[in-house]
Amino acid sequence: MANLRAAKKELRRVMKQNLSQLSDQSIQKQSLAAQEALLALPEYQAAQRISIFLSMPRGEVRTTAIVVDALRQGKEVYVPYTYKLASPMSDIPASVMDMVSLHSQEDLDGLEADSWGIPTPSPSSIAHRKRCLSEEPLDCQDLQIPKASGEGLDMIVMPGMAFDGRLGRLGHGKGYYDFFLTRYKRQLDGSGGRGARMPFLLGLALKQQLLPEEHKVPTDDSDWCLDALIAGGEPVHRHL
Fold it and tell me: What averages of pLDDT result for each successive group of 10 residues across the chain (240 residues)?
């Protein structure tokens, strides 16, 4: 376990250094190519409810145009919202993530940046947004987390620090997506499997975040693999 943590930490360090050297021009060019590939995916075109991460200012594919396209098509769009638990528990991270609804492009344009520079819904707006999980909200500090729409998600577009051709993903180290997906899977299992299934998990990355073919992202059983990966202008990676 210690070796795995060390390997992840080192890979994040290397990736952070490499990404810091990318020009805005390169990121913009790759973002446009990734956007074009994503919009052409049949899974995206068929999705009615989709979660999309909102990008950091640097070192990440820019997703604003994808969010705008989804809203214009009438899809229900959800974005990540993280919060701290009022009463931390040993088996649950101190900070967790839910997916909350985005109402419109005007709503998107009005989001303010968090400490990472990521556009984020304000705490005061959360009570007026839908959640995609039907389980009761986790206990949180001074927030009125809304009840769920109960409809789940068709697709989740996920960020990360590093990816491999086997669809492994290394996140930023907070465990937000892995824990969210574990909660989502528990919800499906508890529903008795009434035709519901896990969302299509799509990684979205810059080509510099894709490891060489002979390398693999360090993972364990708690790390979720993707269903597909788009890395800049690279061909879409899928399970064979």
Answer: 89 94 96 97 97 94 98 97 77 84 96 92 90 65 53 93 96 92 88 73 97 93 94 88
Rg (CA), the chain: 17
Asked if residue 31 lies in contact with residue 74, where contact means CB atoms within 8 angstroms, the answer is no
Q: 3-class DSSP state for residue 202?
A: strand
pTM greater than 0.85: yes
Do 52 and 66 meet the contact criterion of CB atoms below 8 Å apart? yes
Distance of CA 233 to the CA centre of its chain: 20
C-alpha torsion angle, residues 20, 165, 53, 49 (rounded to 10)? 170
Triad 165, 169, 172: Cα angle to 5°? 145
DSSP string, 97-138: EEEEEE--HHHHHTPEE-TTS-EE--GGGGGGS-BS--SPPP
The two structure tokens encoding residue 106: 């005007």
Which residues lie across from 84 on neighbouring strands?
A: 95
Residues facing residue 115 across a β-bridge: none
